[in-house]
Each structure stands twice: as C-alpha cells, then as structure tokens.
Design brief:
This protein has 516 residues and is α+β, with helices and mostly antiparallel strands. The protein has a single domain, classed as 2-Layer Sandwich (Creatine Kinase, Chain A, domain 2), CATH 3.30.590.20. 47% of the residues lie in helices and 12% in strands. Strands 1, 2, 3, 4, 5, 11 and 12 form a 7-stranded antiparallel sheet that branches. Strand 7 (216-219) and strand 8 form a beta hairpin. It is globular, with a radius of gyration of 23 Å.
C-alpha cells in the first residue's frame, strides 16, 4: 500500500480540513515545604473531586489531576491549563505543586494517602478501587505523575476520509477501525516519544528504599539512570505482572474489549488470597485479574465518553471509539503546566502520520519486538550506540528517528499550508534538534540542570516547582475566570451532596450489581 493513504490525504483542500480536537489531563503531587508528600486533605476550595469537571485527584488524595475541556487549538488548551493551574496555585497556601513525574520524598506506602470521594456509592467505589491497587501493587508506583493527551478528529474529517477510502459500513464502525489503525502504528513508534519527551532520569532514594534496582548513585539521596529517558515508564514505574498474560496488541475493537472483559471476570489466585474485605472494610472491587478496565496500563487507550453508571467497555462496545488517549508522557519539569505547545503540535503530527501510514495487524512476534524497542529507549535512550528495530531493520536510534520525523515534516508542510504560519514545521524542527544533539532531550537537560544546581532530585525539583508556583501566582487570573472556577467548585459540592442524599442502596448490593 505504501503511502497511498498519505496521497489521498494530500488531495484534500483547505476547506476540507477542520483540524484536531484535543485536551490534556495533567497530574501533580501536592508537597509540603520540605519536599514531602502532603498529608492534608484535598483543598475544599477546589471543589469536589468526585464531580468537578476540571479539578480532581488520581490515585492519592495528594495527587491532583487537572483536566482541560476539549478545544480545537493548542493555544486554547495551553491557556486553559495555565488558568486552572493558576487557580489551584492560589489555593495551595504553603504547599507546592510538584513539577516532576517521579515523586517527592516518601516514607513508604503509609505516607501516601488514598484519595477520598465522599459517601455516595460511586464515591466509595472509586476509593475501594484505589485500595485494590494498594493491596495488589503497593502505593509507591501510584504516586508517579504524568500527562495524558486526548486527541480526536471531527466527524467532518471522518466522513470525507470514509468516502476517500470507499468504506461502505457505518461511520461509527469506520471510525473505530481507523482509530485502531492509528493505535497499531502508535505501538510501533511510541519509543520515539520516550526519547523526545522522557523527562524522568532520576528519583529520590525514598522511592526505592528496600528495592533492588540497577540505578547509579547521584548523591546521598538520589539515584539515576545514566542513559535513561523515563524511569516512570521503566521497570520501577508502572508495571503489573498479572497483566502480562493478557497479551493485548490493540489490533481491533472487538479483540480489545473481549480481552479486557475476560480479564475483569477471570479470577487471579494471588488476589483471591487477599480477599474482598479486611476488618470489615472492602479492600478491592473483585479478586479478578483486573478490577475495572482502567487498571490495565498501556501507553495509549481507545476511549469513549461514558454515561453515568456506564463502564468503559460498555461505552466502547455500544458507540465505538471517540478519541485516543496518549498516556506515556512524562511531565515536562521545565514547563509551569507540565507540557509545551510545541510538544502538543508535534503529537498531532505524530498521531496523524500513525493514521496515514500503512498499518498491518500486529502479530505476536512483532508485538514482542515493539515491546523491546520501547523498553530499550526508556532505559537506555541516550546510549550513543543504541539501535531500534524499524520494520525489519535494526537502525541507530537517530537514523530511525529521522525517518519518522521526515514523515511528520511532510505533514507539517501540508498543515501549515492549510492553516497558515509555520507552527507545525517549527514543532518538527524542535524535535529534530533533539535527535541531532542528545543533550537537548528533556532527560539530559534534567540531569544537566541538577548537576549545575549541585542538588539531588528532590531539592532541585522543589526549587523548580516553587519557581513555577511564583510564576503562576504572578500571572494570576482575571476576576471573571476566578469567579467561574469558584462557581464550578461550589456547584461540584452541591452535585456530590445531592448524590449522597439520593443514594439509598447498600454499598454491598451496589458493588454486586456493578461487578455482575
């Protein structure tokens, strides 16, 4: 097939291109003045973590998650991120929002408070799910933070693309098929994102206390990977032995939902031994391989907005894929909001090329090879003689990266021609510079900045986090935006309280129905 899809896309006109739909979910720990994880509850002035549409928590009560609405431009996403960060920073008082992906100082699992969501059944379910993660994997790896990038293309594009490809099925089925086409190529190429955006080469000694690791000592309280790009995405970060048997390579929607559905209903002996309750309290939703779909960790997820009470698998099965979620991004510690505009613009190009390039089904042997590429770049991405497998060819990382960047450059020229300006070409040029000079990748810049400061992971990260806080507080908010966030927070508490008043079903009964 070659580049026939790209050629079809290039035949579109300016009037046929309506751009991307995009949004960001950005996590970050609250820490105290000494760089230790905050033990305080989620600030009430920020609203209910159960019902607020833009400010919630991820795993821990101390792990904030800030969510933008969906926009049609990077500029709008970045402005929204800056606004929500400014509002949060005003509410933190003496606490600081941690700028790094790898956590601050910890004192074992007990120091990481599990997020609370109130007394409603859905709120209790969210808490029990997190208790399940704690008893299954421990809390330490749940304290890691990242950024998720959500991207879709509008129906106006899909309708024209369906016509161009001559697909005769429903638009819903076509979109799902094409998003999985994109996902397969993302699996093939995601190693490049770990090289370009991996920014977690070091961690605090408290994170690996009592754990065997191959990291080198940086200082008395810091370890690092000499050539690592992302410890967050390596063996010390997100991992799950029970999930290794699932063998998901994301070839199509049915295979994806069937595999996850089976895992949610397949008992796992180690989790059965833990039991469902401890001291009269639920400690996990079930004793199966997965409690819910979100427990399966992957660098990308196909997503569909769920209705209240609906599970992600049900939503995907009923209405197909709506957007994709890129989940492998470390926080950019040099950005006050954890991501940059050039990064988001490049991701748009990267994902578009994943859609337009040929994308055969991934066989088991290729799946293993792709995992190897990813793991090598995560652990050794700045190793001068590192090679990666591109198709059937082993290439030096720089050569393989440039081949992929050449493809995105073609798209950048096309989109800049349609949209005006040089935004996309500049985004590619920024990534090309990192391939030309390894010292320009974020992981190298983090180590260089730590070295220049003479400090370890926590002290350097605390300094830069305070700088971001000062910048965002000085930037501030317009009175209208501040009032809008205050109103949103108040409304979220009212919604949570209404849920709690209307919930009369016993939680045990609710959980049985939910798990059925």
């Amino acid at each position: 097939m070659g580049d026939s899809r790209l050629q079809l896309f290039q035949q579109f006109s300016t009037s046929q291109w309506d751009g991307f739909r995009k949004g960001v979910e950005k996590e970050g720990l609250r820490v105290d003045q000494d760089g230790f994880i905050a033990q305080t509850p989620h600030p009430r002035s920020l609203g209910s973590t159960l019902t607020h549409p833009q400010i919630t928590t991820d795993y821990s009560e101390a792990l904030l998650e800030l969510i933008t609405p969906v926009y049609d431009s990077t500029a709008k996403v970045m402005a929204a991120l800056q606004d929500v960060h400014a509002f949060v920073q005003e509410a933190l008082g003496d606490e600081v929002l941690w700028a790094a992906s790898m956590p601050c100082r910890l004192a074992g699992d007990a120091s990481i408070p599990i997020a609370e969501y109130g007394s409603s059944n859905i709120g209790r379910l969210k808490h029990v799910y997190r208790q399940g993660l704690a008893v299954r994997y421990g809390r330490m790896m749940q304290s890691i933070a990242g950024a998720h990038y959500n991207v879709s293309l509008p129906d106006s594009f899909w309708q024209q693309w369906q016509q161009a490809l001559g697909y005769t099925g429903s638009l819903q089925d076509f979109k799902s098929e094409q998003y999985f086409w994109l996902i397969r190529n993302f699996r093939r190429r995601s190693w490049l994102l770990m090289y370009l955006f991996g920014a977690s080469p070091a961690l605090d000694a408290s994170f690996v206390a009592g754990v065997s690791h191959g990291l080198a000592p940086w200082s008395a309280d810091t370890f690092y990977g000499e050539h690592a790009t992302s410890l967050r995405m390596g063996d010390l970060g997100y991992h799950n032995n029970a999930q290794a048997s699932l063998d998901i390579c994301f070839n199509d929607l049915k295979g994806f939902t069937d595999t996850l559905g089976k895992a949610i209903h397949t008992p796992w002996p180690a989790y059965e031994k833990l039991g469902m309750t401890r001291d009269g309290e639920f400690i996990q939703i079930n004793t199966n391989i997965l409690q819910i779909e979100n427990e399966y960790y992957s660098a990308m997820r196909p997503k569909r907005t769920t209705l209240r009470g609906e599970k992600p698998i049900q939503a995907l099965t009923a209405r197909g894929v709506e957007y994709v979620e890129v989940r492998c991004l470390d926080l950019d510690p040099f950005s006050p909001v954890g991501v940059s505009a050039a990064q988001l613009d490049f991701l748009d190009l990267f994902l578009l090329d994943c859609l337009l390039a040929d994308s055969p089904v991934i066989a088991d042997c290729e799946c293993s090879r792709l995992d190897g590429n990813y793991k090598r770049v995560v652990a050794e991405g700045r190793q001068p003689d590192l090679t990666v497998q591109l198709a059937d060819e082993a290439l030096p990382l720089a050569d393989a990266a440039n081949r992929l960047l050449d493809r995105t450059e073609v798209l950048a020229e096309q989109l800049d021609q349609w949209c005006g300006g040089q935004t996309y070409r500049q985004a590619v040029a920024a990534q090309r510079a990192k391939v030309m000079n390894t010292a320009d990748v974020p992981s190298a810049k983090v180590l260089a900045a730590m070295h220049a400061s003479g400090k370890g992971h926590v002290d350097w990260s605390l300094d830069i986090s305070r700088n971001h806080q000062q910048h965002l507080r000085q930037r501030g908010l317009t009175p209208e935006r501040r009032d809008s966030y205050k109103a949103m927070a108040a409304a979220s508490w009212q919604e949570q309280e209404a849920l709690e008043r209307s919930d009369t079903q016993p939680f045990e009964e609710f959980l049985t129905q939910y798990s059925a």
